[in-house]
Amino acid sequence: MQDLFLTCDRGFDGGHSARFHAEVFESSTRFLAHNITRSLPAFHVHQLKPMTSYTVVAYASNALGRSKTLRRLNVTTNNQTGSIAAGGGGGTNNMASPAAAVDAAAAAGGTRRAIK
Questions:
Q1: Fewer CB within 10 A of the end CB, N or C, for the chain?
Q2: Does the 2-115 domain belong in CATH 2.60.40?
C-alpha cells in the first residue's frame, strides 16, 4: 500500500475559519476511496492500492460556503510500497479563497498531472 501527502496554500478566508477537504477517487471506477476534512490544508492519505490511478479533488469551505473552483490532481501509484508527495506552491494555490487550487509540486513513487 502507498500513502499520499498533499499540501495546499491557505488563501483569504473572508474572516471565517476554513475547513479543507480532499476527496480521493479511483479513476477507473470513480469509487470514493477517501474523504478527508481537516482544519489545516495538509492531508495524509493512507493505504492507496499499488498500480492504481486516483483523482484527488481538493477544496475549502467555511461559513460563506464552498470554494467555487475545484482543482483535480491525477496520481498513479507504482508497484512499490512508499509514499507520494503533492503540494501547492506559490500564491495561486489558495484553498480558502473562491479559486481553490491544488497542483502537483513533487512526487516520489508515482506519476502526477495537474488538471486546471
A1: C
A2: yes
